[in-house]
Structure formats: structure tokens, C-alpha cells
Design brief:
Layout (H helix, E strand, L loop, with lengths): L1 H20 L5 H13 L9 E5 L8 E7 L2 E6 L2 H14 L4 E2 L4 E2 L13 E4 L6 E2 L4 H4 L6 H13 L4 E2 L5 H11 L4 H7 L6 H5 L12 H20 L17 H4 L10
């Protein structure tokens, strides 16, 4: 009888702990924990943070922060909300700061207590970030380690709808090939790296090119990693749509097509 009672109590305890701190089997919890590990790779007390998933507040993102003995509990309805709650605690209780170019993450030990539970609901359902020009000024030269840091920064600051157009040139190359265009005709169309965003906006053809195949392949792979990480963090990336801007070679392949030249 005693053994059975102990097992029952143990099971109840495990259920309570799981419901309080969140199961690591939850993808959002795993994503938030991975972000914490990237943010504080050498911090000895990462296990002092616990993440758990809760329902949204009337369809809106939400996070909660409170402390229990030996633990900072962060709850949210998705990975971005969990990351935002983490950043809130680091900023307002630990007086730490995470930026694009550097961070101050000298956490106090022990971690500060949250005397009353913090609960915040997002007023905007979609929090958009980046514009086309960003992808021509600095972002075309970034590798994944730089993108990884920026994506983490987005999550920490509540961004859930980032513009994601890296590698769009690979999509256009594939489409043009399916339309029967030669590599030379495609090269005439694709702009050089700093000007690609202006091409996607329908402003120019071929300027600053040509693009090497190595560039196209490398940025296609980079975009796949960017999208995978953003979706892992429960973001909704904004992908390129069709602006109506087509290669000049389209008139040679499809002479009956109605095409307007804009000067």
C-alpha cells in the first residue's frame, strides 16, 4: 500500500511540475529554451528559467512572468511571446540589454524576485519588421550567424511578422528556366547584390550584375535556414509576391503577351 501511495504522489507531483513549468516536448518551449541557450551560453544558472505555454488572450499574444522558489517562470502562447517575456524580465528586473551590435548580460545572482505576476497582452496581432532596402544595404552580405542573432533579437522584442526575401533570385532563376529562358537572358535580368531589392520592387533590371551561380545557390540555402529558424520561433515570414515586373526576354518567348514598358 505504501509503495502504491508513493507512486501515486510521485505521478501527481510530475503532472504538477509539467503543468507549471511546461513540457520540453512542446515545440515553442524547446525554441524558447534554445534561444536562452544562445543568449546565455556560459550562464551557469540557465536552469533557473522555466517556460510554459498558455492560451492566447482573446486571440492576442500574451506573456506572464513570475517567480517560484528557485525558478523564474515565463509563460506565453507561442515562442515569440516566451522570448518577449524573457526579455522583459532581463530588461526590467536584471537591468540587462540585448541589441543588434552588443549586449549587457551581467545577470545578478541570485536572480531578482518578481513579487507580483507580470501579465502583458500584445495590442497588435502582427508586429512587422524590416523593409526592402535593408536587404540591399547590409543584409546581402550576412551569414547565418549574423541572421541568427537578428532573428533572436526579433523574438525578444516581439516581432512575429518579419520580411524574408533573401534568396529570391533563386526563385526567379527557376521560374525563368521553366519559361524557357537561357542563362544569358536570366543574367541580363538579375541585378547585383545591393540592387536586388530594387529589382523586386520593379525598379530596374540587371543593374550591378551579373550574379554568380555560387551567390544564387548560397543565398537559397541561407534563406531556407532563415525561414526554418523564424518558423521554429512561431513567426510568420513575409515572402516575395509577384509585382508584375518581368524580364525583357518574356516578349521574345511570348510575343503575344501584353507587356507595358515603364520609364
Amino acid at each position: 500500500m505504501t509503495m502504491r501511495l508513493d507512486k501515486t504522489l510521485l505521478l501527481l507531483l510530475l503532472i504538477t511540475v509539467t503543468s507549471t513549468f511546461g513540457s520540453t516536448a512542446d515545440p515553442s518551449v524547446r525554441a524558447a529554451q534554445a534561444l536562452l541557450n544562445r543568449l546565455l551560453p556560459t550562464y551557469q544558472h540557465k536552469d533557473a528559467f522555466g517556460f510554459a505555454v498558455i492560451p492566447p488572450d482573446d486571440g492576442r499574444d500574451i506573456f506572464e512572468v513570475e517567480t517560484s522558489p528557485g525558478k523564474v517562470i515565463i509563460r506565453g502562447n507561442n515562442a515569440v511571446s516566451l522570448a518577449t517575456g524573457l526579455n522583459w524580465y532581463l530588461r526590467y528586473y536584471c537591468h540587462c540589454h540585448v541589441s543588434w551590435c552588443g549586449s549587457q548580460l551581467d545577470l545578478p545572482d541570485p536572480l531578482p524576485l518578481v513579487e507580483q505576476k507580470i501579465r502583458r497582452t500584445a495590442w497588435a496581432r502582427r508586429r512587422y519588421f524590416l523593409n526592402y532596402c535593408c536587404f540591399g544595404y547590409s543584409l546581402p552580405w550576412w551569414d547565418f550567424s549574423q541572421w541568427e542573432r537578428l532573428i533572436d533579437w526579433m523574438a525578444l522584442n516581439g516581432v512575429n511578422t518579419p520580411l524574408a526575401i533573401t534568396g529570391q533570385e533563386a526563385v526567379w532563376q527557376a521560374v525563368c528556366r521553366r519559361l524557357g529562358m537561357s542563362d544569358g537572358e536570366i543574367t541580363e535580368y538579375l541585378a547585383g547584390p545591393p540592387y536586388l531589392p530594387f529589382q523586386w520592387m520593379g525598379c530596374l533590371d540587371g543593374w550591378g550584375g551579373p550574379l554568380s551561380q555560387h551567390w544564387i545557390d548560397r543565398h537559397e540555402e541561407l534563406q531556407k535556414r532563415i525561414l526554418a529558424r523564424q518558423r521554429e520561433l512561431d513567426m510568420t515570414p513575409v515572402l516575395q509576391g509577384f509585382t508584375g515586373h518581368v524580364p525583357a526576354a518574356i516578349t521574345r518567348k511570348y510575343p503575344d503577351a501584353t507587356v507595358h514598358t515603364v520609364h
